[in-house]
Amino acid sequence: MAIEVDIDVDVLKSEIRKTYASVSQEPEKEFIFPTGRPWAEDLGYPEELATVPETAVESFAGVANPFSLGRLSPGERVLDLGSGAGTDSLVAAQMVGESGRVTGIDMTPEMLAKARAAAAELGAANVEFVEGEAERLPFPDGHFDVVISNGVIDLIPDKDVVFAELNRVLVPGGRLQIADVTIQNPVSEEGRRNIDLWTG
């Protein structure tokens, strides 16, 4: 059952881009959510985190650890939905190895630039970063074995569309490893219209 949200989605996306562009360009700044390598370490990230360049990890803004749901296997094709500066994508690229492939997708150009720079610094030839939105994934049906995502789906009003797209791009029997924010009680009408609550 979809929840109607009385919010201008274009304005929301613009505000989200501004917030995460700031995380990308000013990683030392204080945000209302934790960021950086110490935060990823506190979340219990796997050993591969140690080799991810600071270029990416300084702008890490995940909410949990999608790899706590299981390690990725060599040769798997992985989509990182809302890849940000690339921390999760670069951890995944190490797990799947040369025979695997990781594609990060994000809507924030500044984050994508950091992710590409970090991938080059790591020498990760099995990862690419694409600009796009979760509601319209630019990939064919059944293209990925696994989708990982970290603190992204909660930012998107129409979750039904996002999950339909994820289902479409996964192979039959593929899996989701999602770390995200959930709520236990309904949000008020006023709260659903407050862009600041959506973006932070």
Structure description:
This protein is of the alpha/beta class and 200 residues long. It has a single domain, classed as Vaccinia Virus protein VP39 (Rossmann fold, 3-Layer(aba) Sandwich). The protein has 8 helices and 5 strands, in the order αααβαβαββαβαα. The protein has helices spanning 9-25, 37-42, 54-57, 87-96, 109-122, 159-169, 189-193, 195-199; strands spanning 77-81, 101-106, 127-131, 144-150, 170-179. Strands 3-2-1-4-5 form a 5-stranded parallel β-sheet. Helix 1 runs parallel beside helix 5. The longest helix has 17 residues, at 9-25. The protein is globular and about 50 Å long.
Concise summary:
With 200 residues, the protein is an alpha/beta fold. The chain is 36% helix and 16% strand. α1 packs parallel to α5.
List keywords for this structure.
alpha/beta, 5 strands, single chain, 8 helices, 36% helix, Rossmann fold
Question: What's the topology here?
Answer:
Blueprint: H1 9-25, H2 37-42, H3 54-57, E1 77-81, H4 87-96, E2 101-106, H5 109-122, E3 127-131, E4 144-150, H6 159-169, E5 170-179, H7 189-193, H8 195-199
Give the structural class.
alpha/beta
Mean pLDDT: 87
Low-confidence stretches: none
CATH architecture: 3-Layer(aba) Sandwich
Strand order of the largest sheet: 3-2-1-4-5
